[in-house]
């Protein structure tokens, strides 16, 4: 695959979402609900990179939420790589999704579906954890994703809600 394949998939997803692809800046910034999301092509690996700013990590929950993010990074074993991190400049939680460009037009990884359905589900799951905290230890044995199509990392994240 190539940059042109990514651009085709991105333009197609924008069209399906009713977003003017030409109006999106070079950084690929768009809004999913109230959340800023960046979509671009990680060229050396031929991956679509979706960066989601999940907002500030409350100081009183920093240790707990950092642990949830690190555990989610550890157990994810799907073809969509989820990487949770903290932005060094502003302390926001950031979720970066890496999706193979070759699969962006498939039913499993349709970019429009990821942006219109899966990303909002992730944002909502994170908001629940921030609001309610960790209420039970993670169940990593099931292998079933609580957010369909996003794998064990999200199952772990959602199991904390």
Which key terms come to mind for this protein?
five-stranded antiparallel sheet, about 35% helix, about 25% strand
Describe this structure in words.
β1 and β2 (35-42) form a beta hairpin. The longest helix has 22 residues, at 111-132. This protein has four helices and five strands. A five-stranded antiparallel β-sheet has the order 1-2-3-5-4. 37% of the residues lie in helices and 23% in strands. It has one domain (3-159): Yope Regulator, Chain: A (2-Layer Sandwich). The chain is of the alpha+beta class and 161 residues long.
Which strands sit side by side, in order, in the main sheet?
1-2-3-5-4
How far apart lie the N and C ends? 38 Å
Helix proportion range: 25-40%
CATH topology tier name = Yope Regulator, Chain: A
Which structural class do the helices and strands define? Answer: alpha+beta
Number of domains: 1
Q: pLDDT under 50 segments (min length 5)?
A: 140-153
- Helix count, per DSSP? 4
CATH class: Alpha Beta
Biggest sheet layout: 5 strands, antiparallel
> Would you count the extended β strands for me?
5
Mean pLDDT: 78
User: What is the H-and-E element order?
Assistant: HEEEHEEHH
Shape label:
globular
- What is the C-alpha radius of gyration, as a whole number of Å? 15 Å
Using the 3D structure, state the CATH architecture: 2-Layer Sandwich
């Amino acid at each position: 695959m190539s940059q042109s394949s990514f651009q085709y998939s991105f333009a197609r997803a924008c069209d399906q979402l009713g977003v003017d692809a030409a109006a999106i800046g070079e950084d690929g910034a768009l809004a999913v609900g109230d959340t800023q999301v960046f979509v671009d092509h990680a060229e050396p690996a031929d991956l679509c990179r979706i960066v989601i700013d999940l907002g500030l990590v409350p100081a009183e929950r920093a240790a707990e939420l950092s642990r949830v993010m690190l555990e989610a990074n550890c157990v994810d074993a799907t073809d969509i790589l989820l990487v949770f991190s903290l932005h060094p400049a502003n302390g926001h939680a950031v979720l970066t999704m890496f999706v193979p460009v070759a699969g962006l037009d498939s039913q499993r990884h349709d970019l429009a579906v990821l942006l219109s359905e899966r990303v909002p589900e992730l944002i909502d799951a994170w908001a629940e954890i921030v609001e309610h905290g960790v209420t039970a230890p993670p169940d990593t044995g099931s292998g079933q994703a609580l957010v369909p199509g996003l794998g064990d990392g999200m199952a772990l994240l959602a199991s904390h809600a």
